Amino acid sequence: MTGMNDDLRLCVAEIGRRLAQAYGEPQRPQHRDPVSQLVETILSQNTNDRNRDMAFRRLRARLPTWAQIRDADPDLVIDAIRPAGLANHKGPHIQEALRAITRERGEMSLDFLADWPVDRAKAWLSSLKGVGPKTAAIVLLFGLDRPAFPVDTHVHRVTRRLGLIGPVSRERAHDDLEKLVPTESYYAFHLNLIRHGRQVCASRRPNCQVCTLRDLCCYYQEQQHGQMDKRSLQHGETAQTG
Q1: What CATH number did the domain enclosing 13 receive?
Q2: Are the CB atoms for 146 and 111 separated by under 8 Å?
Q3: 191 close to 22: Cβ distance less than 8 angstroms
Q4: Could you report the per-residue pLDDT of 27-72, keeping only the tens digit for each?
Q5: Among 116, 144, 172, which residue terminates a domain?
Q6: What is the DSSP letter of 59?
Q7: DSSP 8-class letter at 127
Q8: How crowded is the C-beta side of 154, counted as CA atoms within 13 Å?
Q9: In 72-165, which ranges are continuous DSSP H helix?
Q10: pLDDT over 70 (residue 238)
Q11: Domain limits at 190?
């Protein structure tokens, strides 16, 4: 198994190099307020970036402070974030998260998570209703520059096709990929996998002919030759016996 993991790590390094060549090395913007990151990420669930951003702007325009959002009539929050969809669920989740932050620290800040061990910070965030592993990892990586690797639908699909993970849930994939990808590569690898998933490795019709990763891809080999790559077979055996 050690040799297999070493092979996968070498593969990850080559994938990261090729993705950076294709899409560039993502530059980290100035850190945004982690509370903003949390609220924005809750809004982003099951919608696109445009609807998320519209809902976030409407919410902040109508209720400019976090305390106002926390204490507002729930219907006001729900109406403000309606463009993001699932507003009846997301609104209460946002308000409860803000109340939980206040209870924990007595102020509206998540900066305390910067000083906690990553696993403890993840567990605390994941204890909030409406916050799963992806949302927790996004807040930590993008809001606090902590080593967490978010797995969204694109990352899950692309890494599965590449044979980096087995037939596991997105929740399990967070742990598997965090062990596999070097921590210093989390940011760029995550963002470039998303770009690749959107632009090339689509869910229904992946454009394998233009893919810079196709010689490394288990899915492509299976489509071409009707057989799974050795990495994929190994994952299958592991899944069945573990």
Answers
A1: 1.10.1670.10
A2: no
A3: no
A4: 888 777 999 999 999 999 999 999 999 999 999 999 999 999 999 9
A5: 144
A6: H
A7: T
A8: 16
A9: 74-80, 87-105, 118-126, 133-138, 144, 153-162
A10: no
A11: 2-26+151-241
Domains of the chain: total: 2
Question: Rounded to whole angstroms, how far apart are CA atoms 23 and 213?
Answer: 13
> What does the block give as tokens for 233?
């077979």
Instruction: Give yes or no for a contact between 158 and 200, defined as CB atoms under 8 angstroms apart.
Output: no
C-alpha–C-alpha distance, residues 39 and 154, integer Å: 21
Q: What angle do CA 187, 190, 196 make, to 5 degrees?
A: 135
Contact status, residue 164 vs residue 219, Cβ threshold 8 Å? no
Same domain, 39 and 139: yes
In the listed set 110, 144, 178, which residue is the last one of a domain according to the structure?
144
pLDDT tens digits for 166-200?
999 999 999 999 999 999 999 999 999 999 999 99
* Contact indicator for 241, 17 with CB cutoff of 8 Å: no
Radius of gyration of the chain, Cα coordinates, nearest whole angstrom? 20
Is residue 42 domain-shared with residue 125, that is, in the same domain? yes
Q: What's the token pair of residue 163?
A: 């044979």
In Å, how far are 37, 49, 80, 100 from 109, measured between CA atoms? 11, 24, 22, 11
Cα distances (angstroms) measured from residue 219 to each of 12, 58, 69, 145, 165? 16, 42, 46, 33, 12
In angstroms, the CA 184 to CA 162 distance is 21
